Amino acid sequence: MCAAFTQTILIPIQGELPQLLNTSASNTAWVITITLLVAAICTPISGKLGDMYGKRRVALILLAVLMLGSAVAALSPTVLPLIIGRGLQGVGMGVIPLGIAILRDTLPADRLGSAIALVSATLGVGGALGLPVSALVSEHFDWHVLFWVAAGLGATAFALMASFVPESALRVGGRVDKAGIAGLAVGLSGVLLAISRGNDWGWTSTRTLGFLVGGTVVLLAWGWLELRRREPLVDLRVSARGPVLLTNLASIAMGFALFSSQIAFPQLLELPSAAGGLGMPLLQASLFLMPAGLAMLVMSPVAGRLERRWGPKPLLIAGAAIMGSGYVVALLSELRAGHILVINILIGIGIGLGYAAMPTLIMRAVPASETGAANGLNTLMRSLGTATAAAVIAAVLTRSTVQVGGMPVPSTDGFHAAFLFGLGAAALCTVIAVFIPRSPLR
């Protein structure tokens, strides 16, 4: 929940950052981008280090780095230290796959599904609480207070984990794959920079294409190297197994479907009525979106029972289908406040079921010694889906605009296109999930 909160705390003031920091919008864009890049790189690395040296130990280190980053950001008077602090906060995102992996090491099998569902639901709760809390703090206090709140949450999580979470005796040892870490970091940075900054740089610009092609080439070379190492950072042979590969592909599609709504609906709620929006202030719009995260939390015990009865695969299929039904409602109805509330609850239920199923599908297909690394890679796949959705939906809404008061704002056609993309991603996730092979419970 703490990690998800840190991802959303700057959304209410993102447009005001250039004035607050006395710099250009292109510089302040890095405040958002750097967290995405660092989190994507660190999640599979931290998962592997947790398998090697102890998941609880590595998770505590990551939470300490998150607190440090929050403090640096809270004390930053200019954009550069804020970017550094946000990068350190991104390191802390690696605690998510470690937390899920710890559950496998410490809980009995019949309780594992419910626990994974509950922990996965806190990602939605953190995001759902982050928006209204951030809007409230931004309206009444200095914006730096947001990072002190994040630091306090990190300290709470650190104290609770140090006090109550047992250390797993399961460790694989071995050497750190430094070449694998470097290759993954460089390759992912290139691809994610091209995706996240393509709208600003231009999708056909030399810089965007250079980062995209260069990152892809590095990742291909990294994969070739990893297949030939005795102790790779990511065991690609395990990742190529049918259940793991298809679950990761479904994760990309589900991440895209989730973020399509998270990009489109806040803008639709806040747009003036003359542009087809609902004209809500930021705090009211945030409260309207919060039930999606709460629906994830409410669904967690249900998801656990369904997983024990039917297994994780039907759970993922149902979750993706429910998300798709939400987008169908968005496309076929006149979007009023009540409709948007229902649609977001449907999407929250779908994400709650899907996010509960995916780690279980992964862990059923990999040995216990690979739990952290495999969950880290799955978290990376979700991040890749959300990053791609953020770029694609932003491009769609930017290119389909109308003039209101002399300013371009997203049009109704743009929002419909965004919902079509979300529906397509949910449908693709459903189809992929149907073909995931069943794995015996390890």
Instruction: Outline the biggest β-sheet.
Output: 2 strands, antiparallel
Low-confidence stretches: none
Q: In angstroms, what is the radius of gyration?
A: 21 Å
CATH architecture of the largest domain, by name, is Up-down Bundle
The CATH topology assignment of the largest domain is Growth Hormone, Chain: A
Distance between the termini: 28 Å
Relative strand content: under 5%
Number of domains: 2
Helical content class? over 70%
CATH class of the largest domain: Mainly Alpha
Q: Average the pLDDT over all residues and give the rounded result.
A: 85
Strand order of the largest sheet: 1-2
Number of helices: 17
**Broad structural category:** mainly alpha
**Which geometry do the CA atoms define?**
globular
Order of helices and strands: HHHHHHHHHHHHHHHHEEH
The number of distinct β-strands equals 2
How is the quaternary structure best described?
A: single chain
Could you please describe the fold and organization of this structure?
This protein folds into two domains: 2-177 and 231-434, Growth Hormone, Chain: A, CATH 1.20.1250.20; 178-230. It is globular, with a radius of gyration of 21 Å. The protein has helices at 2-8, 17-21, 25-53, 55-74, 79-91, 95-106, 109-140, 145-164, 178-201, 206-226, 236-239, 242-270, 282-310, 312-332, 337-365, 371-399, 412-434; strands spanning 401-404, 407-410. The longest helix has 32 residues, at 109-140. The protein contains 17 helices and two strands. The chain is mainly α and 442 residues long. It is 79% helix and 2% strand. The two termini are 28 Å apart.
